[in-house]
Amino acid sequence: MFSFFKKKPATPPDAASAPLAVVPLPVAVAPEPERRSWVDKLRGGLRKTGSSIAQVFTGTQIDDALYEELESALLMADAGVKATEFLLADLKRRVKDAKATEPQAVKGLLADALADLLAPLEQALRVGEHRPTVMMVVGVNGAGKTTSIGKLTRHLADAHKKVLLAAADTFRAAAREQLAVWAGRNQVEIVSQDGGDPAAVTFDAVIAGKARGCDVVIADTAGRLTTQLHLMEELKKIRRVIAKAQDGAPHEVLLVVDGNTGQNALTQVQVFDEALQLTGLIITKLDGTAKGGVLAAVALWSRERVRAGGRSLPVYFIGVGEKLEDLQTFSAREFAQALLA
Question: DSSP states of 248-271 as a string?
């Protein structure tokens, strides 16, 4: 078992080859000073979203006008109609129960309501129950998929996990080169084939990962729009081929979503989930966004997914910049407080 974002002392050679404990990872965080710095950056990144919401609570009365302004602010923040209605109903109940009389108190209760809605998204990424743990990473063009893989690889490597990357984006040469740069920077191996079949590259990587005793195999895939049905079918094929290379794999199917896309992000989650049965999300580019409320929409959709007999869809990581340390584990309470700061 290991913790993300915290370097450990060098592992002795014999320990490095020891069997992995079958234990889920904790939702780990960075060392306290680094985490506080990152939360400050998150708060700054969400300022465009939060300022319009915070302005609602600058008055002196709790009345229908306040709730109407809050409804508009949440919709403008791309929380969506369903999540906005849910939060307003929950907030009114909390205000009544708490007998709140000041708008600032209502703001605190909204933070509580938002944190509770987001809480099921805060889950642990599991590494160690399978060897290798196979992760398939997907997303639309420009979401920050390859960069997110590179950052995740770095944190895994820092935790002394042996990682193998599969360059299954065989259409865009720059993607393979970008992934190769991250592989070199992190001193991990990469399986790549110029112009090869993406499914074949991924199959070879999983087989190689098993043979080389890797802890994790991460497959990068070509970015695609949700409307490109033939490319979505290709992703399904890659998923099927991974399962042939290792029973039960892929263990994680991660969707990288650009937080700036607002409600379109929810559409992406729904379409990719229908095609691939997603297991987790990475939300990127939350720095400077005016659409941070979309996580509320994702959370409500995930809750409905559970009620329909499915599993909650966690947000494993969120990103607020280009630096390595800008990708951190998701905390519902931190996000809610940063959004309403």
Answer: T--SEEEEEEEGGGTHHHHHHHHH
